[in-house]
Amino acid sequence: MRRAGREKAGRFLAEGAQAVRSALGHGVVHELFVTAAAASRNEDLLEAASSAGVTVSFVTEKAAAGLSETVTPQGVVAVCSLVDRPVEAVLSGGPSLVAVLVGVSDPGNAGTVTRVADAAGAGAVLFAGETVDPHNGKCVRASTGSVFHVPVGRSRDVSAVFAACRAAGLRLVAADGYAERDLDAVIDAGELGAPTAWVFGSEAHGLDASVLDAVDDVVKVPLYGAAESLNLATAAAVCLYASARALR
């Protein structure tokens, strides 16, 4: 299902036992498609679906492959309600740690950062600007169910997202490999003890100058070895966990 179809229907597909298990736990599944082989491996999913009143439809391996976007389908696909909400609504609970993705086009990267944010205890993940749809199949799979755990907000207006973060009491800190300050200096200064929205950009292109000018601080992850750089998800993990530790 393409983005336009997902938005028109208000539904998206979640594939794989882990993602479906998380979706069932959050009450967003409308129908579950499963092969006989997958059903025998995941009896708990069928029981959870039955308890939730979700329709379970048995399908052939060929039909499951038609629903799947992977080379090796797991035989478990759920039809789910869209999970994103307006940014202001997602931030209304006053989260102290947020990940903001700006212009991240690769769904695997976006999904993995969502998973990292969930693991670090972030209160929200915001998809800003021309960032990939959080309901994209590869993005959902890469999140391994985290797209159902952590509140997700989305807006094409980056300035509005930043304004909402500031209104929620969050300090905007961008991760950029060319920043003058590094994460060690920020940690030593005790600056991560404040509620923070970490801003991450595309792995290929980084963040535009206009975005870097709009945030409160720009920080790089120090490289102590010979590696030229870190990939997006690794850099996000380092930054989010540094904040998570400081906030605790």
Structure description:
- With 248 residues, this protein is α/β, with parallel strands linked by helices.
- It contains twelve helices and twelve strands.
- The chain has helices spanning 3-9, 17-25, 36-41, 43-51, 61-67, 87-91, 107-119, 137-143, 158-167, 183-188, 209-214, 232-247; strands spanning 11-15, 29-34, 55-58, 76-81, 84-85, 97-102, 124-128, 152-155, 171-175, 181-182, 196-201, 217-220.
- Helix 8 (137-143) links the parallel strand 7 (124-128) and strand 8.
Q: How is this structure best summarized?
A:
The protein is of the alpha/beta class and 248 residues long.
Pattern of helices and strands: HEHEHHEHEEHEHEHEHEEHEHEH
List the total number of helices.
Answer: 12
> CATH superfamily assignment of the largest domain?
SPOUT methyltransferase, trefoil knot domain
Q: Give the % helix.
A: 40-55%
Largest sheet report = 8 strands, parallel
Shape: elongated
The rounded Rg comes to 19 Å
Number of domains: 2
Low-confidence stretches: none
CATH topology of the largest domain: Alpha/beta knot
User: How many strands in all?
Assistant: 12
